Amino acid sequence: NVITGIIKANIPSRIAFAVTSGTDSRVIIDQVGAEKLIGKGDMLYLPTAASTPIRIQGAFVTQREVESTVSYIKNQVKPKYIKGITDVESKISPAAKEDEALVKEALKVILKAGYASVSLLQRRLRLGYSRAGRLIDILEDMGVISGYAGSKPREVLITEEEFEKIKSSNLS
Q1: Are residues 154 and 106 part of one domain?
Q2: Same domain, 164 and 89
Q3: Does 145 map to a domain?
Q4: CB contact set of 13 (below 8 Å; sequence gap of 6+)
Q5: Separation between Cα atoms, residue 111 and residue 157, nearest integer Å
Q6: Among 31, 87, 89, 144, whose CB has the most other CB atoms within 10 angstroms?
Q7: Considering just the CA atoms, what is the radius of gyration of the chain in Å?
Q8: Which helix (H) or strand (E) holds 105?
């Protein structure tokens, strides 16, 4: 039950690497064959419209090569940011202006942690639940953190550079 029917329905093209049995191959590509692969990048690719898989060879790429390629691409063109998304200062609520120092401190904490949650702010800033929750709401309104996602922590949506810009300015 590793690959459910819902997953299979939503990912019509499939790739199978070497597996130990024909049963495992059938789970992935709905037919045998992947158990005969030799490994080391050897794989079967089953495109959406095809009835039989295509045997292909994947290349090994080192971390250094990936970083070099990403660096090269980054240096080609400067990013073009969408004004409304990256302009954090325009999204500051009146509540944030009242607790400016505390909001900046909360920003520092979540940037260092890499995520945001009420319990994180409670522990690190020694706050009660309602105050920490209000800070999370303010940060979400500012566009600094992602929205509520159940029990998962919220994502931080700004960079250190954007934080420095906020820190050096007044929230008003």
Answers
A1: yes
A2: yes
A3: yes
A4: 45, 46, 47, 48
A5: 9
A6: 144
A7: 24
A8: helix 100-113
pLDDT of residue 84: 64
Q: What is the CATH number of the domain that holds 146?
A: 1.10.10.10
How many domains does the structure of the chain reveal?
2
pLDDT in tens, the chain (172 residues): 567 778 878 888 999 999 999 999 998 998 999 999 998 899 999 998 899 999 999 998 999 999 999 999 999 988 777 776 655 555 555 655 667 889 889 999 999 999 999 999 999 999 999 999 999 998 998 888 999 888 888 999 888 888 887 777 665 4
Q: Which amino acid is at 44?
A: L
What range does the domain containing 17 cover? 5-57
Q: Centre a 10 Å sphere on the Cβ of residue 96 and count the other Cβ atoms it contains.
A: 23
Which residue shows structure tokens 């690959």? 3
Instruction: Report the distance separating Cα 85 and Cα 60, nearest Å.
Output: 37
pLDDT at 90: 52
Which residues pair with residue 45 across a beta bridge? Answer: 15, 54
Please list, in sequence order, all residues whose beta carbon lies within 8 angstroms of the beta carbon of residue 105, skipping any fewer than 6 positions away: 125
